[in-house]
Amino acid sequence: MNLRTGFGYDSHRLVEGRPLVLGGIELPYHMGCTGHSDADVLLHAITDALLGAVALGDIGMHFPDTDPRWKGADSRKLLAHVTGLLKERGWQVVNMDCTVVLEQPKLRPHIDTMRGAIAGLLGVAVDAVSVKASTNEKMGFTGRGEGIMAFATVLVQRA
Ligand code: MG
What pTM did the predictor assign? Predict the structure, then answer.
């Protein structure tokens, strides 16, 4: 069967004084995610889902946070690199679905811009990219606004 599914998860801490980069775009907010790269938690989950679909390890293995090459890295470049690894092996993305868990800011006004950015990176049509948002009903670290979680699944096919 030339179909595979992949799953990805990531979380990052929210801090004052960092831009909030999510789904390949910058959102207006007074806090942003902290991390070695630009800390785009959603693109990291998607990148891990792609790697998982073809059993190529995980994002930390390909872009270790001990490597100065990835310090402040644009996560769009990491995702583009991994999309290229799949392409080299003959795999293409069929569709991607994800959920971002956070209390603030509200994502609804930005969902379609994120979908467009992600579709461009994956080389698929916008209607193959779903971005959903959920709060955590004020429970846990996301509920307290200490961080953001993202989950992603992807289906890939080999021509
Ligand atoms: Mg990450």
Answer: 0.96
- 97-138 confidence digits (pLDDT tens): 999 999 999 999 999 999 999 999 999 999 999 999 999 999
Q: How far is the CA of 1 from the centre of ligand 1 (A)?
A: 31
State the distance from the centre of ligand 1 to the C-alpha of 72, rounded, in angstroms: 12
Tell me the C-alpha distance between 13 and 143, whole Å: 12
CA torsion through residues 11, 154, 22, 43, sign? positive
Phi, psi of 68 (to 5 degrees): -60, -20
CA distance 154 to 38: 22
Q: 109 C-alpha to center of ligand 1: Å?
A: 24
Q: What is the pLDDT of residues 83-101, one digit of tens each?
A: 999 999 999 999 999 999 9
